[in-house]
Every structure is written in C-alpha cells, then in structure tokens.
Design a protein that fits this description.
The complex is a heterodimer of chains A (389) and B (349). Chain A is α+β, with helices and mostly antiparallel strands. Helix content of chain A is 25%, strand content 33%. Chain B has five helices and 15 strands. Classes of the chains: A alpha+beta (389), B alpha+beta (349).
Chain lengths: 389, 349
C-alpha cells in the first residue's frame, strides 16, 4: 500500500460521492434553522464573554502597621466652632487632641451661610500681646501645672486657657481674667453664640480600635481619664445642642461602589445634654476592576445609638435603663474587622474558552441538526413508501 | 403551486447535511444496537443536565451592611433550674444601656426536664449546616412561642421565653440571681445554696423568629452541680440573607458561631449566672440560588447530544475496522467493500 493510501484509512471525515448525495427541502429548512440558532448562540456566547462578573473573596487581612484616613464633613448648626473640639483616641495610646491638621473649620451663620473658613488653629497668634511692655508677665491665676514653675507668665488669654487646661480647671468665658478682657474674649464668645460650625477634612489614625468625638470645650487628658471643659457650653445663654448633619464620613479613598451608610444622616435634638454614639466596624476592602489599578479602601457598617446624659428610661425605650453621665457630644467609635473583602471584577470567560464555546455551539448544533434531518428524511421516505403500497 | 415548488427547490439547495441515498447505505443489527444504546445514553445525560439546571447553584457573596443599624431582635427560650422569682434577666451593651429584659420576657414556673436536650458538642454544630432549599422550607415566621407544659406557679424551674429588641452592638445578655451582681431594692436574698444555673436552651436566635431553623444553641443543656457557677457563651453573629431563585423568596436571618466557657470559680466582681456575650460581625453573608441562563442550558444539551453522536460516528467505524483487521489478519479484505459488522447484511432497498 503506498503511503498516501495508508493515510487515507485514518480519514475520519469520510466524504460521500456527490452522486450519492440527496438534497431535500426539509434538509434545507433544518440547515437554515440550525444556522440561525448557531448565530444566536454565538452572539450570546460573545455577550457572555464580554460580561463582567463580580467575584468577591474574603481573606484575613494580613497587612500591618497601616494607617487609615478618615474623611469627614459634618455640620453642627447649634455650636460655634470656638467651643467645639475634635479628639481622636485609640487603644495604642495615641491621642490626637484638638486636631488641627488637615481639618478645616467653617463658621456658619444662623441661616447656614459661611462666615469664615480657617484651618483649625483656634486662636490666630497674630493678635499676640505685642503691644504690651516687654517685661510684662501676666498672672496665671494660680494655674501652675508643675512644681517649681511658679513664675510662669500667661501673657495672653490663650496662655491662661492653656494653663487652666493643663491643671484641669474649667476656664469659662474669661470674665475677670485680665488678659481675656483685654482681648475682648468674653464678648467674642457671646457674639459667636448663635453660630454653627462645619468641620471637614481628613484625619490620619492608626488602624486599631479607637474613637473620635466632637465635644464641647477644651479637652485635657490624664492617664486614666479624658475630660472636656463644658463650662461655656453649659452656661451659655444661647442653647447649644449637638444637632448634627453628617454630609460625609468615609474611611480611606473614595470608590464609587462604596456606599457610606452615614452619608446624609441628620440628627436633631432640643436637649443640651444629649449624647450620640455611632458604633462603626471598618472592613478593609480592595477593589480590583478591569482597566483600573487596584484600590485599597474601607467599607463600614454602623449602629447608631443616642441617649440623654441624665440616663434612665425614656419614652422610646421604656424597658431600657440608659447609662447616666458622660458628656454631651457625638462619638464615633470604630473597630477594625480582621477580615478583608476583595471585590474582584473579571471577565466571566477567557478568550480561549470563548473560542471553545463557539466550536462547541457550531459542532453541537450541526450534529443535532443532522440527526433531526436524517430522522425527518427517513420518516418521509417511510410515509411515501406506505402511500405507494 | 408552481411557486411553492420553486421555493422548496431553492431551499433544497441549502441542505448541508449529506444524506446518502439508501442504495448506498447498509444497515446492520449491530448498528441498531449501537443506536439504541446511544439514545439511552443521550436521554440519561439530558436528564442529569436538566436536574442540575433546575436545582441551580448556590452562590455566596460577602457584603458589608450599608444601612444604619439600630436594633436587632433576639428570641430565646431557656429553662433554668431556679424559681422565677429569684432570677434577673438583663442585657448590658457597649452603648452603656442596661436593658431590663425580664420586663419584656415571659417567665413561667415549670418542671426541669432534660429529656429532649443534648449538650453542646461538635456534632450538634455540624448539623446546623443547612442547604438553601431546607432553609426555605423551614423558615416560617412564628409570632408566638409554644405554651409551657407542666405549668406550676411554685415550681423549681423557670422557663424564660420571648422575643425582644436589643441594640445592635456588642453586648452581654445574662441571667443572674437576685442579690448576686445587681443591687436589689427588694432585698430578697437568695442564698448561695439556692443557686443552680443548670439550664436547657430550646431556642436562641437573632433576627426574625423562625422556630424551625436550627441554631447552634438550640437544644443545648448544661448540668451544673456547683452553686456558684458562671456559664458563659461567646457568640459571633453573622447577618445572613438567603435569596431564592429570581428573588422569589428572601429570608433575612442571623447565623452565629458559639463557644462556651463554664467556670466554677466566681469572684465577687464576676457574679454567678448564665451569660451570653455576643458581637456582630460587620461582614454579612448572602447565599443566593442562581440558575445558568436558559440559552446556556440549551447549548449544553446540544453539546451533549452532538458530542455523543459525533463520537460514536467516529468510534464505530474505527473499532469496526480494527476488529476486522484483528480477526482477518493475513486475509486482505478491502475495508471499503466489506466489514465484519456488515456480514450477513440485509440490503435495505
């Protein structure tokens, strides 16, 4: 047998001699239908290939030593910026008190219009007592933080306030304090009493359990407590409250699929001594989208809680004894989840599997169609034979 | 009529399937057997494909809840081997609230019965794994708990049951004895000897009350022979949503993992009692039933049938020719003219 002939025996595609072939109308119909079906299936195969699917994955977050940015924008319509402070504390012992970095305080009028915007340095050092005598040494009114620091000078109202803060005394609005009256501090406070305050910006915190809070008055910390000077807040003739409007609160960079549950939250109260708490659980999230570089950010879930400082039962919760005490304010306490969500976008199929799909569609449909065609033909033949008989 | 004839003729030219006129084909009994076997295999495979199509696949997604949480329902049904008048039930949570749960729960005297309960074991937790269809079958909301059997006003045990809402933050639900832990204005003193925190848990679940859904603590009993005993359960709650095919049925519930810690050394700052310390995981689980699109199912059917037909179409002559070669070695029989399977062939014309 010559090699050509030998190869011929392996031919799986045996061809029928043209003379022996029969073409039928039913065969033509089946062919057309099969072609249409193939085209339709290939189109859906293509759309399936182009489809982007989201494949979430849950892993244990193994990164460490990271810091996290908190972006916030909150308006307090009934507290002037002057007596509002923002503190951050966490379990690592880091405390950021009266934060000034990256945070902008905007003074707002009664009607919400902007008075002035400043980064959070409360007292501009511009109006220092430069007009005073060089040898002037103002009294600190007995607020001497350390032993042997007896001849400390408090030349400005701010110095006195700081000295008071350091020893943990309430300061008040500065009445009867020579330096403050000279700077018209009490009048300033009074003038501002009707104002509101917007705080916006970014805090950088350790990625550990912690809290940040807005509370009235200067804060001071000793190793086992954290206190605020509530004097002005409580004694002011104008009633200040912690009514607030959270425009935005997010952890980490923005991603358009992350919905931040607290955005747009408005809380209204008439009570001066009212405490809001938000329990936040932060979940690290990575977004991997096609055509974008991966983005590391955070999502959070939140539970809201509110109570009056006086504690006890209230109408909404007749069976709950709320805790008594604490300070008025808005507290955000955040906890970090050990799990990390990876939101990965993928093409549901690779190009290779798309090709395989196309082949399978064509082959499968043709095979089934030929079986159908054969069946129709045989049936037709059988019928016509019967007729002939 | 003539035009019809013409259309039929032109359609005929499209016929891509070579049908060999029966003059040139042969039929054999072996071929018939193969065809029947082929049909059976086809039907079997189509049947399995259809089964897996209608069963669907379970798809799990992880979601961080994007609504602001307030409260969460807890359903409990616990029988403690102490009279009701001696017990406190309270919830203390991270917000500083003290929820006086005893005011919201039913407390009824009953007998202490261990018949239907078992202790917390690995097996019981493994049993709690449910598949979607059984979840849907069993997730029927109930408003009421079963009535207490053997109701006695002065009986030795107390059945504490009911549903109430607690703050959706980390907390601690505890059953303690009066005069142990909380200051009691009534000064009803319960002596140490009277303490017995043996208990049976019939229901402990979070979210909507579905009595038939299995929870890890359902049916758990603890027998305690020491008076001063502190039995602690640590629960990690995972919000879970089950979604049926096409959103036909949605069940919101909570699953939880539990570990227990029994301690018999009780110091005064840690009063004896039964404690459920719970925390809520921020990542929720969504289990959805999904079906492949119908056209994909169709493609699979077509592929199965087509594949089988083509494979047999190739394999049958191949095996046939090998068989012929094997049996007729030495004899040179042209393959084209006669094969073994066609011996004794019956011409079909």
């Amino acid at each position: 047998m010559p090699p050509r002939r030998r190869l011929n025996t392996f031919d799986a595609f045996t061809k029928t001699v043209e003379d022996a072939r029969v073409r039928t109308t039913s065969g033509g119909v089946v062919t057309i239908v099969a072609t249409v079906v193939i085209v339709l299936l290939i189109v859906s195969e293509w759309s399936d290939y182009r489809r982007i699917v989201n494949r979430p994955e849950l892993i244990v977050d193994k990164t460490r030593g990271e810091r996290m940015n908190i972006n916030l924008n909150i308006t307090f319509p009934e507290i002037p910026c002057e007596i509002l402070t923002l503190d951050v504390m966490d379990v690592s012992g880091e405390q950021q008190m009266e934060i000034t970095h990256g945070i902008i305080k905007t003074r707002l009028n009664d009607d919400g219009s902007v008075i002035s915007t400043e980064s959070l340095a409360l007292h501009s050092s511009g109006d220092n007592a430069h007009h005073l005598d060089e040898n002037y040494c103002g009294p600190c009114y007995g607020a001497v933080p350390k032993e042997g620091d007896g001849n400390r000078c408090c030349n400005t109202c701010d110095d006195v306030r700081n000295a008071y803060q350091e020893v943990g005394w309430a300061f008040g609005d500065g009445h009867g304090v020579e330096q403050c009256e000279r700077e018209n501090y009490p009048e300033k406070i009074k003038e501002m009493a009707h104002e509101g305050c917007n705080i916006a910006g970014t805090l950088s915190v350790n990625k550990v359990v912690g809290n940040f809070h807005f509370a009235p008055g200067k804060s001071f910390s000793s190793p086992n407590m954290h206190l605020h000077d509530l004097n002005i807040y409580e004694t002011s003739a104008v009633r200040h409250t912690f009514t607030h409007d959270i425009h935005h609160l997010s952890f980490g960079p923005h991603h358009h699929t992350v919905s931040n549950p607290l955005d747009g939250t408005v809380k209204d109260t008439d009570e001066r001594n009212f405490n809001y708490m938000y329990f936040i659980k932060v979940v690290s999230t990575r977004f991997e989208r096609i055509g974008e570089s991966p983005l590391e950010t955070n999502q959070y879930s939140v539970t809201s809680h509110e109570r009056a400082i006086r504690g006890g039962r209230d109408d909404d919760h007749p069976n709950t004894m709320h805790a008594r005490g604490g300070i008025p304010g808005v507290f955000f306490s955040y906890d970090i989840s050990p799990m990390k969500v990876i939101n990965r976008e993928e093409r549901s199929k690779s190009f290779g599997s798309f090709l395989i799909g196309v082949c399978a569609v064509v082959g499968g449909v043709l095979a089934v169609a030929s079986v159908i065609d054969r069946g129709v033909w045989e049936a037709d033949k059988a019928l016509s034979r019967k007729k002939a008989v | 009529m003539a035009s019809m004839e013409n259309v039929a003729k032109s359609v005929r030219t499209f016929d891509a399937f070579p049908k060999v006129s029966s003059t040139y084909t042969t039929r054999s009994s072996q071929g018939g057997v193969v065809t029947i076997a082929l049909s059976i295999i086809c039907i079997f495979l189509i049947w399995t494909e259809m089964g897996s199509y209608f069963a669907g696949v379970e798809e799990q997604q992880f979601m961080v809840d994007d609504s602001i949480g307030w409260d969460m329902q807890v359903n409990l049904d616990i029988t403690v081997a102490m009279p009701c008048v001696t017990l406190h039930v309270n919830v203390q949570d991270a917000s500083g609230d003290l929820l006086l749960a005893a005011e919201l729960l039913e407390m009824e005297g009953t007998e202490y019965d261990l018949a239907t309960s078992h202790e917390l074991t690995i097996e019981s937790r493994a049993e709690a794994v449910d598949d979607l269809s059984s979840v849907f079958r069993r997730a029927k909301v109930a408003k009421k708990f079963k009535k207490t059997k053997k109701l006695h006003p002065n009986s030795p045990a107390c059945r504490i049951y009911g549903s109430f809402k607690l703050n959706k933050v980390q907390g601690d639900l505890h059953i303690t004895a009066k005069n142990h832990g909380y200051l009691d204005p009534s000064m009803s003193s319960v002596t140490n000897e009277a303490l017995n925190f043996s208990h049976v848990i019939d229901e402990f679940s979070f979210g909507e009350y579905y009595p038939k859904l299995e929870n890890p603590l359902d049916g758990v009993a603890a027998l305690i022979d020491t008076n001063l005993f502190r039995y602690q359960y640590y629960l990690s709650i995972v919000p879970t949503t089950y979604i049926g095919y096409g959103g036909r049925r949605v069940v919101f519930t909570n699953q939880y993992a539990v570990t227990e810690q029994p301690t018999s050394q009780v110091n005064p700052s840690r009063p004896p009692g039964i404690y459920f310390k719970y925390d809520i995981e921020p990542i929720g689980l969504t289990i959805a039933e999904r079906r492949v699109p119908f056209w994909q199912f169709l493609v699979r059917l077509v592929n199965v049938v087509g594949g089988i037909v083509i494979c047999t179409g190739w394999l049958y002559p191949l095996i046939d020719s090998i068989w012929v070669k094997w049996t007729n070695r030495g004899r040179s029989v042209p393959h084209e003219t006669q094969t073994l399977l066609d011996k004794g062939l019956k011409r079909d014309d």
